[in-house]
Amino acid sequence: MRRLRYPHLFFEVSFNGSWAQYIDSSVRVLTTGMFSFWSSSRTFPGPLPASPFQAFFKHHEVDATHCYCAYPEAMVTMVRSALALEQRLDMFAHRAENIPADRFDTAWEAFLEDAQEFL
Amino acid sequence: MRPRAPQLELADIQGDILRAYGNAYDCTSYAFVRIECEPAQARAWFAGLLDHVTTAQPWRSKPLTTLNVALTASGLAALGLSQPAVGSFSHEFRQGMAARAELLGDTGPSTPQRWEPGLGTGDAHVLLTINAQTTADHRRALGKMQAAMRDAGGMRVLYQQDAQLLHGAREHFGFADGFSQPAIEGATEDKTPGGGVPQKDGSWRTLAAGEFILGYPDEDSNVDRHRRLPPAPDGALGRNGTYVVWRKLHQDVALWRRTIEAAAARYPYGDARKLAAKVVGRWQDGTPVETHPFGPDPEFDPAAHGANDFRYGADLDGRRCPLGAHVRRTNPRDALGHAGKLSFRHRMIRRGMPYGPVLPDGVLEDDGAERGLVFVSFQASIFRQFEGVQTPWINDGNIFGLGADKDFLLGDAAGSGKMTIQGEKPYFLAPQQAFVVTRGGEYLFVPGISGLQAIADGVWTRALARIHELGSFSADR
Amino acid sequence: MRSPNIAGQTYALMVWTPIRPGAEDALRAHLEGLGHRASPLAKLPRTHMARWLIVPDMPVAPRTHARDPLGDQYLLFTSNFDGDVDSYLHELVELMAEEAAAIWSHCIGCPQTAEGAALKAYLHRNQVDSGFAFAAYGDASVARVKTALDKRTRLIDFVVRAQEMAPAQRRKAFLKEFGGG
Fold first, then answer.
1. What ipTM is given for this predicted complex?
2. pTM
């Protein structure tokens, strides 16, 4: 059992898009958070400007040798939309059986208006 | 408090970058030259061009013709630049556009294997862009160019694309184009309302010049304690220069018209013109759909001060301007929240020109003519500013909460992805085959005047015993 | 006290095991080879995302004086899955028995017979807690995510086609496709 001299911080994240774009977004939007999270790390250059921070990250990055995802084509926002949509769809489908034919269209339009942001 | 920006060296920056040459030039030629002789001989020809290169200095009177010079990575090598010197350019520039086709969505009919001969092969070395006021001036300028090459020997035009202004500064789908540009500190401050970075109080501020021209502080420099400048090629090679994206985009106008006509048949809120405006995010005359969702503004003047002064913050459900509309995708302004922090470093200067004959109004069948847009953009970082729009904003919907939906106008050739027109009665456009196909492209660099001179003088041609990697940040992931 | 590895109903597992000196290249080749076929992790249906990384050493920032070497290279296995860690590790050693043995047998301290309860205990012993685990949709299981994604795709396809349908036809088609609630 090995004892390391210093504590080391390990950060793992799964995200969509290129890592450089992810980091670029994170440092601008989560600047304070980035600072508190990383400020105890040696040679942390500060979250902004982005280039030295990206270099810091890249220097410390380890590539996965093998990755797996149960739903590789989906992205976080899509999963969240799908989950929110499923609730609405299930509810509507359940009601739909009992909606008289001449009222279905109105109900369908109301459903779509509500569901469009998840489609 | 933002540090004061250094003065831009207009005499050393090539023209048509900071300020557009404008609509006075009816004819444009893009001539890709291939060097087939020794670098020293090529440099002699190259040196001969320099007296004619147009700079960014303001004109007393507009010249009859203009000339600008850009180079590909293989062009730098062909002119004798050493490996380390070429290595000081960005990774994506050196890789070239064709090698990055997958990333850019240049697949299917847009795949580089199907590009026009010469483009994307590494054979194109030097791009000469010639603008002319009349066809006579144009012929003369081309003649001079060809004569100079003949005299020098060892150079030939590998590929030439002519382009010309269409009536009303429109592109082939009929939309006014080119007037929405970034507001650059010290250069285009007149474009600040609408062209700059949206501020919380409703005002706008300019963008740092270094976002578009190398050798100047960029947005990152302005938050850096040490005010470091962004990565750039060594010394005079990079200073006052910038990167260029050149893409020949074929437009299937007939397919576009037929698709919109058919889809409009069931559109509950209007006709084909309205549906087209919803897809684009502007009406054909340029009126933003965000400010005028029901019809174009008869008073709209794209050249007027503040014509582009609008934002999306009050329309986060996309009911005025759809979330996936083309102009909203390519320039989200404040639409991504966080006071525009996710968008402001992805701006580009655009200087393209349409090519090919107009398809007459009302014609719905393709006539087989070659027509489209030569897309040209200038930016300090191809990866962040061009590719950072192309890949996540045009060819994906994730950031907008649109799943895998692509830009309906431009989306890649896979032909997948619907478009939602948000509204009380949402309307869905079915997935389509591509209206726009990439016929070829290149990544180039447009040096400053001193940079051009130094290349001509053979300054970076020293061969080194060892090739060493320069430790510049490589944005290749 | 709630485990720091829990996010919603998901769990973030991290297992660090030192690699036998000399076995690093073989392990790397083996793991890279997995990528060409279906991942063995697909055999564990509760897994959202998982990966194996080879950590060669603790990276040393430039101009740092003190090195802090790991000594051996390490295999890091991380997984985000549904439910509790004990039953997951049990499933791992049962359903992915062959592949697990093939991988972890490259590591120091792995039981000679790298299977069953012995392998499970080895992995458990080498687990390291997260300081903080975050999941964007921690309440949804893999099965639920997959069903929801499939429904979304089918619904998008339907709403586009439905625009062309007459109202009566649309109602019928909807009930056929999604009905039964």
1. 0.88
2. 0.91
